[in-house]
Amino acid sequence: MREIAYEDIVKAVKNLVMHTATHLPEDALKKLKEAHEKEKSPVAKKVLEQLLENAEIARSEERPLCQDTGLAVYFIKVGQDVRITGGLLKDAVNEGTEQGYKEGYLRASTCECFSRRNLKEEVGYNLPAVIHIDIVEGDKIEIEYAAKGGGSENVSRARVLAPAQGAEGVKAFVKEVISEAGPNPCPPIIVGVGIGGTFEKAAISSKYALFREAGTPNPDPEIAAFEQELLEELNKLGIGAMGMGGTQTVLAVHVEKNPCHIASLPVSVNVQCHSSRHGHVTL
């Protein structure tokens, strides 16, 4: 049984939060550069230049990529042969999150639902984090993190379709969601689609889909083809970079499919803005 200290998890999470806030990951940066090369509209092309410049300034000066520094979302795989010493995993992740947001001078965005009162004094600075944990084989802990901003999360949607609507119904729903979102999620965006399972499984799958390296296809050839078809259809909407029109509205579409009940077809669409701040660390 391998042991991992509570404090090592706290330190790793803190560093992950601070680095991700200022360094756009290479996969997102690569897709933005590709979008700039492909864009047909001069106005949208200029906007993409500004987004790339913003990413470079953030990296070189270690300043936040966006004023909305998001809520902390984690997908964590814990090896069954790991024992954490000195405390609980969730407590370590929350403590590391709080330290990272404080020391990185990142905005505390967590509030009470109805009063909108900021909870930094009562619960913790930008706490609690949203944490999904899975037990897997091995003796390591793999932590995947994303800072999820309000603009992209606000336009995300979930719906349970009739089974007879099938793949065409899913496609129509995804197009409806992105069309209605328009410029609000700060395109060009990455689109995560969760299909099947139950209502909550579809939603979680659509969020997890955003953690995949941008543009990498689903290992299932049929789903990979569906992703490409959706990407082409969504880019025909003409929303463009920051809603200025153009050919590059979506950088990537990632689909995760699950078995579901014979009487239902749950679908969820989770949107991520061009500033796809995500990272991972393995302990």
How does this model look, in words?
This protein is an alpha/beta fold. The chain has 2 domains: 103 residues; 126 residues, no CATH class. Helices cover 40% and strands 25% of the residues. The protein has a 4-stranded mixed beta sheet. The longest helix has 20 residues. It starts with a strand and ends with a strand. The model has no long low-confidence stretch (mean pLDDT 98).
Kindly summarize this structure in a few lines.
The chain has helices spanning 6-22, 26-38, 42-61, 89-103, 150-154, 166-181, 199-209, 221-235, and strands spanning 2-5, 71-79, 82-85, 130-136, 141-148, 157-161, 189-197, 250-260, 265-272, 278-282. The protein is of the alpha/beta class and 283 residues long.
Helix amount? 25-40%
* Biggest beta sheet attributes: 4 strands, mixed
Summed over residues and divided by their number, the pLDDT gives a mean of: 98
**How do the strands of the widest beta sheet line up side by side?**
4-2-5-10
Treating each run of at least 4 consecutive H or I residues as one helix, how many helices?
8
Write down the Rg: 19 Å
Q: What is the percentage of strand-forming residues?
A: 15-25%
Tell me the number of structural domains.
2
Q: Tell the overall outline.
A: globular
What structural category do the secondary elements indicate? alpha/beta
| Number of distinct beta strands | 10
Uncertain residue ranges: none
Report the span from N to C terminus.
14 Å
